[in-house]
Amino acid sequence: MIVHHKNLVSLIGYCKEDDHMALVYEFMSNGNLRQHLFCMDDATNTTVLNWNQRLQIAADAAQGLDYLHNGCKPPIVHRDLKPSNILLTENMRAKIADFGLSRAFSTDTSTSSISTTLAGTPGYIDPELHASGTLNKKSDVYSFGIILFELITGLSVQIKNTERIMHIVEWVTPMIEEGDIRKIIDPRLGNDFDVNAAWKAVEIAMWCAQRTSKQRPDISQVIAELKGCIGRNDENVQSEMTSLEMASYSYTLPEAR
């Protein structure tokens, strides 16, 4: 009840009648992000999110996460960030929902961590958490990176092909190496996106989805990069921006679970 931010879904109250209990949240008229990205065969949902909407949704979610990580005392880690937990207003602005798995830290440093039982949704769970059971704010940053890849590609975290199920990072990595952004971008967008902004978004997503937490940015850094990405898309400018440190990373692909 004390957590309030424009990019977090507000808890209105609760109801209890005999054995029936419910939490009441503000109404989000456009449902959740998963419905708009992956349920296009639904007759009630025939529109495709445009490129600018996708960037804005990512920025909104990052700002909500930044409030949890850096604006709350003690900081809060969400633990289950995924498209179905990102809800959309009538103007397609995003708010993070479902804090059922959230945990608070005793300190506000980015390196603080707690040992915890594994929780979250397969594919979005920090691979470092799988290995060590140690949770910190960068665990949410990893999940955010996976969601950003889903926004960019229009594909879900687990991609099925004829042979096996691939994790989205495993699928996108060779595409990045090929250097053809049009093989990465959701084909439903056609040519309605800025190539430079798209590459920037891919860099941000890969930065967030690094194997270890030390290699990932704080979510406040992600917000700054996304704002630049949105500005580049809106203005369609060719000016150079600060590049992310991509060349030296060594990435081990997570298993699809």
Automatic annotation (TrEMBL):
Domain Protein kinase residue range list: 1-230
GO-annotated cellular components: membrane
Subcellular location field: Membrane
Protein topology in the membrane: Single-pass membrane protein
This protein's name: Protein kinase domain-containing protein
PROSITE patterns: PROTEIN_KINASE_DOM, PROTEIN_KINASE_ST
Biological classification of the source: Eukaryota, Viridiplantae, Streptophyta, Embryophyta, Tracheophyta
Pfam family, one: PK_Tyr_Ser-Thr
Entry's Gene Ontology molecular function annotations: ATP binding; protein serine/threonine kinase activity
Keyword ATP-binding in record: yes
Main subcellular localisation: membrane
Domain of life from the UniProt record: Eukaryota
Alphabetical keyword list: ATP-binding, Kinase, Membrane, Nucleotide-binding, Phosphoprotein, Receptor, Serine/threonine-protein kinase, Transferase, Transmembrane, Transmembrane helix
InterPro entries, A to Z: Kinase-like_dom_sf (IPR011009), Prot_kinase_dom (IPR000719), Ser-Thr/Tyr_kinase_cat_dom (IPR001245), Ser/Thr_kinase_AS (IPR008271)
